[in-house]
Amino acid sequence: MQSTLRKSVGLYIHIPFCKSKCYYCDFNSYAGMESYASDYFKALKNEIFIYSDKLKGDTVKSIFIGGGTPSLVDGRYIYEIINHCRQNLDIDRHAEISIETNPGTLSLEKLTTYAAAGINRLSMGLQAWQDSLLKTLGRIHRREEFVENFNIARRVGFKNINIDVIFGIPGQRLEEWDETITQIVRLDPEHVSCYSLKIEEDTVFGEKLASGSLVPVDDELDREMYYLAKDCLSRNKFNHYEISNFAKPGFECRHNLIYWKDESYIGVGAGAHSFFEGKRYNNTCGVESYIRQISRGNMPVENVHRIERNEEMSEFVILGLRLIGGIAANEFKLRFGTDIFSLYGKQLHQLSGRGLIQWDGERIRLTNLGLDVANQVFVEFI
Amino acid sequence: MPDERQKKIRNFCIIAHIDHGKSTLADRLLERTGVLTEREMEDQVLDNMDIERERGITIKAQAVRMIYNARDGQEYVLNLIDTPGHVDFNYEVSRSLAACEGAVLVVDAAQGIEAQTLANVYLALEHDLEVMPVINKIDLPSAQPEHVKKEIEDVIGLDASDAPLISAKNGINIEEVLEKIITHIPPPVGDEEAPLRALIFDSYYDSYKGVIVYVRIKEGKVKVGDSIRMMYTGKEFQVTEVGYFRPGSLAAGRELLAGEVGYIAASIKNVKDTRVGDTITLTDNPAKEPLPGYKKVQSMVFCGIYPADGAKYGDLRDALEKLQLNDASLLFEPESSVALGFGFRCGFLGLLHMEIIQERLEREYNLDLVTTAPSVIYKVFKNNGEIVNIDNPTNLPPAAEIQKMEEPVVKATIMTPTEYVGNIMELSQERRGIYKDMSYIDEGRVMLTYEIPLNEIIYDFFDALKSRTKGYASLDYELLGYRESNLVKLDILLNGEIVDALSFIVHADKAYARGRRIAEKLKESIPRQQFEVPIQACIGGKIIARETVKAYRKDVLAKCYGGDITRKKKLLEKQKEGKKRMRQVGSVEVPQEAFMSVLKLDT
Question: Whole-prediction pTM value?
Answer without folding.
Answer: 0.67
